[in-house]
Amino acid sequence: MESTQVKSLNEFHDVINQNKNQWHCWFYRGQSKENYKLTPKAGREPFLSKAKNDQALFEAWYRHAVGLQDINHLTDWEALAVAQHHGLATRLLDWSFNPLNALYFALYGGSLEVNEKDNCVVFAHYSTEEFVDTENHQSPFDISGICRFRPNTVSPRIAQQGGIFTVHSAPHLCLEENLHKDERLLKIIIDKSVKKELSQELSHYGVNSLGLFPDLDGLSKHINWAFVNLDYS
Questions:
Q1: Are 162 and 101 in contact (CB under 8 A)?
Q2: What is the CB neighbour count within 10 angstroms for residue 71?
Q3: Sheet hosting strand 2-6, strand order edge to edge
Q4: I need a labelling partner for 119 at 20 to 30 A (CA). Which of 9, 61, 106, 224 fits?
Q5: pLDDT tens, 114-125?
Q6: Can you tell me the distance from the alpha carbon of 162 to that of 98, in angstroms, rounded to the nearest whole number?
Q7: Percent of the chain at pLDDT exceeding 90
Q8: Name one Pfam family in it (predicted).
Q9: Cβ–Cβ under 8 Å, residues 179 and 27
Q10: What is the mean pLDDT of residues 155-174?
Q11: Distance of CA 95 to the CA centre of its chain
Q12: For residue 233, what pLDDT band results from cuts at 50, 70 and 90?
């Protein structure tokens, strides 16, 4: 795995731009800690040590979700993508076609404020592997290894985030240890000293909670952030 460190949005752009002739083969994921592995939530503790598998977790979620939202028309693939975007621990790992979206998630993780104590990271994954054929694999629980899944736009969040996924047949499988032949993985480390500045620059370009979470939750989160971090006086 290659690695580089950046201290500005311009430097980040320069790293991404090195591969501009193959952009369609690159996918991006932001993580708030540089030592985190590329492993789905269902493959991490405390979920990993539980006796029930991630399929049982999804089935429990689905039984309750049908009473809260109209998801009966969705395939299992689509429903699992919706569950992932609403926080369920699944075998899916989020990626994006948009490197700036990935940078946002690296800076914030799941928090309202940027953590300026630690470096964060954007992973860039190069792959020419075909996306999984969901017609032939009707269930996300009958695949083997790690494959890529491009969901239909079944929620505004997936659309806005440019969301795609890697699907890990055993959720504890980490991508960096299971790359396919000819795949590449680049680790772009974001220096902690510039994280706050980068968050403000991203928001100026519309990459913020409001843009990535087009609902009342995203709006509220963005207004809170802007009130604390931006000076419009």
A1: yes
A2: 15
A3: 2-6, 184-190, 120-126, 26-31, 92-96, 163-168, 146-149
A4: 224
A5: 989 999 999 999
A6: 6
A7: 69
A8: FRG
A9: no
A10: 89
A11: 4
A12: very low
157 band by pLDDT with thresholds 50, 70 and 90: confident
* Residue carrying structure tokens 């076609």: 97
Q: Are the C-beta atoms of 195 and 114 separated by less than 8 Å?
A: yes
Res 182 pLDDT > 60: yes
- Do 79 and 71 meet the contact criterion of CB atoms below 8 Å apart? yes
- Rounded to two decimals, what is the model's pTM? 0.90
C-beta of residue 170 within 8 angstroms of C-beta of residue 43: yes
At 60-109, the pLDDT tens digits run 999 999 888 888 889 999 999 999 988 999 999 999 999 999 999 999 98
Residue 10 has pLDDT above 80, yes or no: yes
DSSP-derived 3-state class of residue 163: strand
> Distance between CA 138 and CA 57 in Å, rounded?
18
Radius of gyration for the chain, computed over Cα atoms and rounded to the nearest angstrom: 18
Asked if residues 123 and 35 have their Cβ atoms less than 8 Å apart, the reply is: no
Nearest to 191 by CA among 7, 55, 68: 7
Q: Are the CB atoms for 105 and 30 separated by under 8 Å?
A: yes
Helices (H), the chain: 9-17, 54-65, 76-85, 99-108, 156-161, 195-204, 209-212, 216-229
Which region, left, alpha or beta, applies to residue 137 given φ > 0 means left and ψ of -120 to 50 means alpha?
beta
Pairing of strands 184-190, 2-6: parallel
